Amino acid sequence: MNHGKQRMCVVNPRLVEDIAPLVGGQCEIMTKIGISWNSWVKITSGLPVRHSLAHRLKARVLAAADRIEGFQEKFPAASGGLDHAALDDAFLLPGAHMAEAASGLRP
Questions:
Q1: Euclidean distance between CA atoms 34 and 57, whole angstroms
Q2: 103 bridge partner residues
Q3: Average pLDDT of the residues of the chain
Q4: Is the torsion defined by CA of 24, 30, 36, 39 positive or negative?
Q5: Is the distance from CB of 94 to CB of 102 less than 8 angstroms?
Q6: Distance between CA 83 and CA 34 in Å, rounded?
Q7: What are the tens digits of pLDDT across the range 7-55?
Q8: 52-77 burial, b for 16+ CB within 10 Å, e for fewer?
Q9: Cα separation of 71 and 18, whole Å?
Q10: Phi then psi for 21, rounded to 5 degrees?
Q11: Which of 94, 100, 102 lies closest to 10 in space, CA to CA?
Q12: Residue 91 — very low, low, confident or very high, per pLDDT cuts 50/70/90?
């Protein structure tokens, strides 16, 4: 059995405050965005999470992206509205890079 390291990544900290209204409370987070409260705490702290968890969150958030004001301000489309491709590209960051940044080390 292969026990290699799991792939990790970080949800872009610039987007976390915009995602927060989707989360709800501790009791409803799983049904609203498909992750646990403990995972949300890691995300808000800028810590790496499993790649699979981050992609599940990303899919749920992108499905609601048009209703999130902050996203439209950060990723405006040239024709108006939201640039979904730019948001998709910016959503996740490599885990190792952000872990170093969170600990105060320079990459």
A1: 6
A2: none
A3: 87
A4: negative
A5: no
A6: 24
A7: 899 999 999 999 999 998 899 999 999 999 999 999 999 999 999 999 9
A8: ebbeebbebbbeebeebeebbebbee
A9: 7
A10: -60, -25
A11: 94
A12: very high
Per the listing, tokens 């990303």 go with 58
Q: Under DSSP, is residue 92 helix (H, G, I), strand (E, B) or coil?
A: strand
* pTM beyond 0.85, yes or no: no
Q: What is the pLDDT of residue 95?
A: 72
Q: In what order do the strands lie in the sheet with 49-50?
A: 49-50, 8-11, 92-94
Task: Look up residue 78 and give its amino acid.
Answer: A
* Beta pairing class for 92-94 and 8-11: antiparallel
Burial of 48 (0-12, 13-18, 19+ CB in 10 A): buried
Tell me the C-alpha to C-alpha distance, in Å, between residue 100 and each of 30, 46, 72, 94, 107. Answer: 29, 11, 29, 11, 7
